[in-house]
């Protein structure tokens, strides 16, 4: 096992550990020791069996920016140098050959160094057996000194709290194609450029994180029961999975109706999920999109899907709907009546998750994952309200704040037990499985802050 | 709609006897064949998940009788010719317009622009 240093992006902090853990389990490797992972720090040390696996991880991760073969580290310059002196020379030599070129880059976290200071620190490494030539423009090997000045940029200490030295893992001779992680990918998949946008298209970063939490692998079949415009399918397809989705909204699946992007009247004839995948060269992974009600599964019984990755409607921007009650009539497009859902019942938020977990328990392969967003009213949140199911094991629960009193949590569950028909509703009577029911009034609670503020403003205006 | 998807679908009209909703009978008015890059390992993974007889029947009903055997042979994983035939029938033949009919209840679900609509009406639920 070789030690590697992961340099993480300081975003989506809560999501990083489950992402990296999932990728380690997919490709091999582990955290080198529990104490060394400081969750909010951008520096994590991993032990990975081979460089190939390190590259595979970097090709998938959104949370990490770079990975380095770790040659030494310490909590002072002295410790770093001692650590480097004890690193086996025969492991260094292949990268320090006389006919090779290199450069040393210095990276500091929460501190800015002057050019003079940087040069001084690089020069201090002269004791290393560098035999090659320095090339600042296009070197074969790039080494980094990384210095950690702590978490508070406003009170950085004089000396770094921790120092690292490593060889940057990159694809040799192709400078653009460095194994840098998925940051560039995020730019190319940015939502603004995407062909087809609905009201709630997901942040591109988070959709890749979701596919990673879901341990999506090439040749998997991934299903989204609230597929909307298909944003979540793109990331799974990018990782080599074949994708399909269903949605209750005929217009969204067909790419009809008022466009969400400003200045556009109508979603064109090719503005649908398939076209979405096509524009990224991922059309071959498109299986199908269907119009159906996720509370009434359309699939034959069996373990059909490797992963279910979805963002159910919260009842805030998208209405929650289900067929089967005479209460409301849905406004629909000009198409003939039999193509549309006629009515929608008040599909309670907790029922959505109850149905989703039940569906995942039945239709996932063993070890397959369910990844979904759970909207939460923060003042009343506690871990107990996260929905359970006897066949599903909770893997992670990561919060993303939406406002001061609401957030959504990315829940990842893994199928650990085979679904038997008796499981179906027996746990219903056990109150512990659905305490989320109290969150049913999420929509009212979400808006309660707004209505109170409007009422106050009106009152103030009257004075 | 691809035949892979069709092989996984079942009618969910209330009151059917167990298994009575599968397979949906396809009445296609427009079928398209579109090439998809062949991926042997993916197809090999799918074979155990399929209902083979229903697949053959569906291909037949679309006028694309596959030259597939009545059952996959035990060593299908290494048989590229077999896998390519399965690939073609599962992923390259699409129903663009037509109807899926529930075998037990007779209920018909439309397929429009390649997208099946499997919603039930309020009276049915």
Automatic annotation (TrEMBL), chain A:
The keyword Manganese does not apply. It is found in: Cytoplasm. Keywords: Cytoplasm, Methyltransferase, RNA-binding, S-adenosyl-L-methionine, Transferase, tRNA processing, tRNA-binding. Residues 3-169 form the tRNA (guanine(10)-N(2))-methyltransferase TRMT11 N-terminal domain. It is an enzyme of class 2 (transferase). Residues 193-322 form the Ribosomal RNA large subunit methyltransferase K/L-like methyltransferase domain. It catalyses: guanosine(10) in tRNA + S-adenosyl-L-methionine = N(2)-methylguanosine(10) in tRNA + S-adenosyl-L-homocysteine + H(+). Signal peptide: none annotated. GO terms for molecular function: tRNA (guanine(10)-N2)-methyltransferase activity; tRNA binding. One of its GO terms (cellular component) is tRNA methyltransferase complex. PROSITE patterns: N6_MTASE (PS00092), SAM_MT_TRM11 (PS51627). Pfam families: Tmrp11_N, UPF0020. One of its GO terms (biological process) is tRNA processing. The keyword tRNA processing applies. Its EC number is 2.1.1.214. Catalytic subunit of the TRMT11-TRM112 methyltransferase complex, that specifically mediates the S-adenosyl-L-methionine-dependent N(2)-methylation of guanosine nucleotide at position 10 (m2G10) in tRNAs. This is one of the major tRNA (guanine-N(2))-methyltransferases. PANTHER family: RNA METHYLASE-RELATED, TRNA (GUANINE(10)-N2)-METHYLTRANSFERASE HOMOLOG. Belongs to the class I-like SAM-binding methyltransferase superfamily. TRM11 methyltransferase family. Part of the heterodimeric TRMT11-TRM112 methyltransferase complex; this complex forms an active tRNA methyltransferase, where TRMT112 acts as an activator of the catalytic subunit TRMT11. This is tRNA (guanine(10)-N(2))-methyltransferase TRMT11. The lineage of its organism: Eukaryota, Metazoa, Chordata, Craniata, Vertebrata.
Automatic annotation (TrEMBL), chain B:
GO terms for cellular component: nucleoplasm; perinuclear region of cytoplasm. The keyword Hydrolase does not apply. It is found in: Cytoplasm, Perinuclear region; Nucleus, Nucleoplasm. One of its GO terms (biological process) is rRNA (guanine-N7)-methylation. It holds the Pfam family Trm112p. Keywords: Cytoplasm, Nucleus. The keyword Nucleus applies. Transmembrane segments: none annotated. PANTHER family: MULTIFUNCTIONAL METHYLTRANSFERASE SUBUNIT TRM112-LIKE PROTEIN, UPF0315 PROTEIN-RELATED. This is Multifunctional methyltransferase subunit TRM112-like protein. It comes from Rhinopomastus cyanomelas (Common scimitarbill). The gene is Trmt112.
């Amino acid at each position: 096992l070789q030690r590697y240093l992961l340099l993480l992006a300081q975003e989506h902090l809560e999501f990083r550990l489950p992402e990296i853990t999932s990728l380690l389990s997919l490709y091999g490797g582990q955290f080198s020791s529990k104490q060394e992972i400081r969750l909010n720090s951008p520096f994590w040390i991993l032990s990975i069996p081979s460089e190939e696996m390190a590259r595979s991880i970097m090709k998938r991760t959104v949370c990490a920016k770079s990975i380095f073969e770790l040659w030494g580290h310490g909590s002072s310059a002295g410790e770093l140098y001692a650590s480097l002196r004890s690193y086996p020379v025969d492991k260094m030599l292949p990268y320090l050959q006389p006919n090779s070129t290199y450069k040393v880059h210095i990276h500091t976290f929460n501190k800015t160094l002057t050019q003079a200071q940087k040069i001084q620190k690089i020069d201090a490494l002269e004791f290393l057996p560098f035999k090659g030539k320095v090339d600042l423009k296009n070197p074969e090997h790039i080494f980094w000194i990384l210095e950690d000045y702590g978490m508070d940029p406003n009170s950085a200490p004089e000396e770094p709290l921790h120092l690292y030295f490593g060889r940057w893992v990159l694809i040799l001779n192709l400078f653009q194609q460095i194994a840098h992680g998925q940051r560039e990918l995020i730019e190319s998949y940015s939502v603004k450029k995407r062909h087809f946008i609905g009201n709630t298209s997901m942040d591109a970063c988070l959709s890749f994180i979701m596919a990673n939490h879901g341990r999506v692998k090439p040749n998997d079949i991934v299903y989204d029961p609230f597929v909307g415009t298909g944003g979540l399918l793109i990331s799974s397809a990018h990782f080599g999975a074949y994708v399909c989705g269903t949605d209750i909204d005929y217009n969204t699946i067909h790419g009809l109706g008022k466009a969400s992007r400003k200045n556009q009247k109508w979603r064109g004839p090719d503005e649908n999920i398939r076209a979405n995948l096509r524009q990224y060269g991922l059309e071959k992974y498109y299986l199908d999109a269907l119009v159906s009600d996720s509370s009434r599964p359309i699939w034959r019984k069996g373990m059909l899907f490797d992963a279910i990755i979805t963002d159910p409607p919260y009842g805030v921007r998208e209405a929650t709907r289900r067929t089967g009650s005479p209460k409301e009539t849905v406004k629909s497009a000009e198409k003939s009546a039999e193509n549309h859902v006629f009515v929608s019942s008040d599909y309670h938020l907790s029922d959505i998750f109850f149905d989703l977990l039940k569906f995942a328990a039945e239709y996932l392969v063993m070890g397959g994952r369910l990844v979904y967003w759970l909207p939460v009213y923060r003042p009343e949140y506690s871990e107990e309200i996260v929905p359970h199911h006897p066949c599903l094991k909770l893997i992670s629960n990561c919060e993303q704040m939406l406002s001061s009193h609401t957030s959504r949590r990315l829940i990842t569950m893994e199928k650990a037990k085979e679904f038997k028909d008796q499981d179906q509703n027996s746990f219903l009577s056990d109150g512990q499985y659905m305490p989320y029911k109290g969150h049913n009034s999420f929509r009212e609670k979400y808006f309660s802050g707004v209505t109170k503020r409007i009422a106050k403003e009106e009152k103030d205006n009257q004075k | 709609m691809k035949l892979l998807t069709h092989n996984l679908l079942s009618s969910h009209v209330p009151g059917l006897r167990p298994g009575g909703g599968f397979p949906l009978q396809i009445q296609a008015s427009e079928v398209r064949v579109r090439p998809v890059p062949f991926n042997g390992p993916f197809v090999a993974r799918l074979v155990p998940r399929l209902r083979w007889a229903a697949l053959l029947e569906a291909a037949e009903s679309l006028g694309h009788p596959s030259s597939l055997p009545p059952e996959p042979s035990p060593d299908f994983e290494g048989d590229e010719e077999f896998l390519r035939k399965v690939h073609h029938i599962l992923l390259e033949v699409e129903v663009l317009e037509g109807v899926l009919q529930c075998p037990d209840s007779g209920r018909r679900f439309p397929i429009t622009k390649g997208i099946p609509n499997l919603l039930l009406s309020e009276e049915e639920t």
